[in-house]
Amino acid sequence: MHVHLASHFDTQGRIATKTESAAEATLGIAQAAWDTLMGGFTTVQSVGDPSEKPVRDAVRDHGFPGPRILTSLAPIEGDASLAPDELRALVHARKDAGADLIKIFASGSQREGAKPTFTEAQLQILCDEARKVGLRSMVHAYRSQVAAAARAGCNEIEHMTYASDEEIAIAAATGAYLSPQVGLVVQNYLKNKDRYLGVGNYTEAGMATMDRDLPQDFKVCTVAVHLPGSKVVFSTDATAGAHGRNAEEFIGRVEHCGQLPMAALVSANSIAAAALGMGDRIGTLAPGFEADLIALDGDPLKDMAAVRRVVFVMRGGVVYKWPGAAVPGP
Fold first, then answer.
1. Distance between CA 265 and CA 300 in Å, rounded?
2. Closest CA to 66 of 99, 31, 98
3. Per CATH, the architecture of 22-287 is what?
4. Is-cis flag, bond preceding 48, omega within 30?
5. CB contact at 8 A, 289 and 282
6. Does the pTM of the predicted model rise above 0.85?
7. Each residue of 25-79: pLDDT tens digit?
């Protein structure tokens, strides 16, 4: 429900920037998509960069190997000075560009203090306008912005770090899909810290903040998965270094949030499909649905580490991986 296929390491092994060529960027996205499919994920929501669109279209329209991709293209950055008409225009611009959903930053980066960037009234305008043009809304939110985004009618609330139990409960009560991350994204940043440092807000201080506050991620996830009636989806916020390892989040959900193994698996299948508005096509094994199927070497209900051992991948009735072999990637 939340990856960044456009995030990849460049030919020098560093986090790629806009200085690389369009061809290099596209190859990086294609490789990330292939690795994700081989990791057992047949549909992803990538949020987002305009460079993801050609790969999305190639997979959808031309049989290019990869998961189905839904992309927000460019996200809408928080700016409290924007007037209602300006906000609506941003939504329409992304719709016209071919976005599958609207990604909104209601808070700044955790590495820069996670401060609010939009008012609740602005969030309501953005999410209402997204609904009017037929798109879902995903909101990057910390602290009180979690409840604000939910009250504003936004569909999916990301991260939720630093939110109180009450704020998470408010978000759950609105019916919003809740999307915490505990098993991959921060761990990947720390593992690959030297490959990120010096670009944008990837600083020593920012990395230290994520490391220090990882228990806060565990806390909000634990609260969310144990709230009766909450709709918690599976997401990883995977960036460069994490593609293909998204299943680590399953292990994190069980170990750090106390989520039952079956509930974690369901969150990545039928609940996620419903959140994408695709519950009538994917996320269920039944006649009339698209034939997506993966197989593991082991039983994840007894040993969740089995999710690391994907031996078979079928998407839409096409087999891309089977024991001992895989269709060549892009």
1. 9
2. 31
3. Alpha-Beta Barrel (3.20)
4. yes
5. yes
6. yes
7. 999 999 999 999 999 999 999 998 999 999 999 999 999 999 999 999 999 999 9
- How far apart (Å, rounded) are the C-alpha atoms in residues 132 and 41? 30
| Largest separation between any pair of C-alpha atoms in the chain | 57
**Rounded to 5 degrees, what are φ and ψ at 102?**
-110, 125
- 106: its two tokens: 């209601």
- Where residue 73 falls (left for φ over 0; alpha for ψ -120 to 50; beta otherwise) is left
Both tokens assigned to 206: 């920012």
Domain positions in the chain are 22-287
- In whole angstroms, give the CA distance from residue 329 to residue 316: 17
State both tokens at 210.
Answer: 């994520």
Beta strands in the chain (DSSP E): 43-46, 68-71, 101-105, 136-141, 156-159, 177-179, 231-232, 293-296, 310-315, 318-322, 325-326
Q: Give me the DSSP letters along 198-259.
A: TSTT--HHHHHHHHHTHHHHHHHHHHHHTSTT-EEPP---B-TTTTT-TTHHHHHHHHHH--
How far apart are alpha carbons 245 and 86 in whole angstroms? 39
| Cross-strand partners of 136 | 101
pLDDT in tens, 84-132: 999 999 999 999 999 999 999 999 999 999 999 999 999 999 999 999 9
